[in-house]
Amino acid sequence: MTTETEQSDTIATADGARIAFRHIPGAGPGVLFCCGFHSDMGGNKATRLHDFAVRTGRQYTRFDYQGHGASSGRFRDGTIGTWFSDALAVLDRVTDGPQIVVGSSMGGWMAMLLARARPEKVAGLLLIAPAPDFPEKLMLPSMPEEARQVLFRDGVWDRPSEYADEDYPITLKLVEESRAHHLLDGGLLPFDGPVRIIHGAADEVVPLQHVLSIPDAIRSRDVVTEVVKGGDHRLSSEADLHRMEDRVAELIAAAG
């Protein structure tokens, strides 16, 4: 749901792509939402945060990566680097002042990358079912052997979607390029602000053990991981959405 106070617009990248975003001006720190892989800014969590922002007078920004939602480009041409550049462009050119960055699934990885690139612009992180390093560390190992053979032979595999009717392409380029953005390979993410992590114990996409390795990869001493009994990867029940709002409110309060 949008309101008359919300802008629907695009920004252009250096290579001519158009990144769609929606922005509500309001009090700071603002809230920036980063969607997940093959998701868009019309999802439940993104729209729920819009309502939260309207209700509380908070600045709020959401956007679509290239090849997602209303932005230009093809999904199959995207890489982690491309989508991170999109997120960084929105942070730099659309948002005003420090932000609480909320990331869902792949968006959690994007949020962490933003905190590394612009620590002065990130007042806090809320990572929901975060999936840093997922193409090589989660997706590739979980592929059926036949799918891996197709991927390495043809450079692309059409993956059946768990949430939509149509398959979507997974490219070898996505997997190989993602290595340049890994965050769980030993170095500390130089971010000292508050971090909240919410993960479902029954997540069928991102294993709990993967998420439990994230706090040790962040320099901040204020990192809290919350495991939701029975929670799935989407974490979109009414209780889950209330929990998300509560954690955002806590991060806003912590930012002063």
Task: Describe the model.
With 256 residues, the protein is an alpha/beta fold. It has a single domain, classed as Rossmann fold (3-Layer(aba) Sandwich), CATH 3.40.50. Helices cover 34% and strands 23% of the residues. It has eight helices and ten strands. The chain has helices at residues 44-56, 80-93, 106-117, 134-142, 145-154, 172-178, 208-212, 238-254; strands spanning 7-12, 18-24, 27-34, 58-63, 99-104, 122-128, 156-159, 168-171, 195-200, 223-228. An eight-stranded mixed sheet has the order 1-2-4-3-5-6-9-10, sandwiched between helices. Strands 7-8 form a two-stranded antiparallel ribbon. Strand 7 (156-159) and strand 8 form a beta hairpin. Helix 2 packs across helix 3 (106-117) and helix 4 packs across helix 6 (172-178). The radius of gyration is 17 Å and the shape is globular. The mean pLDDT is 94.
Q: Which stretches are low in confidence, meaning pLDDT under 50 for 5 or more residues running?
A: none
Overall 3D geometry? Answer: globular
Number of domain modules = 1
Q: Mean pLDDT, rounded to whole units?
A: 94
In CATH, the topology is named Rossmann fold
Tell me roughly what share of residues is in helical segments: 25-40%
Q: Figure out the total of helices.
A: 8
CATH superfamily: Alpha/Beta hydrolase fold, catalytic domain
Question: How far apart are the termini?
Answer: 29 Å
Gross CATH architecture: 3-Layer(aba) Sandwich
Structural class based on helices, strands and sheet pairing: alpha/beta
Q: Strand tally, please?
A: 10
For the largest beta-sheet, the strand count, sense and barrel status come to: 8 strands, mixed
CATH classification, class level: Alpha Beta
Beta fraction: 15-25%
Rg over CA atoms, rounded to whole Å, is 17 Å
Compressed to H and E, one letter per element, the order equals EEEHEHEHEHHEEHEHEH
The strand line-up of the biggest sheet is 1-2-4-3-5-6-9-10
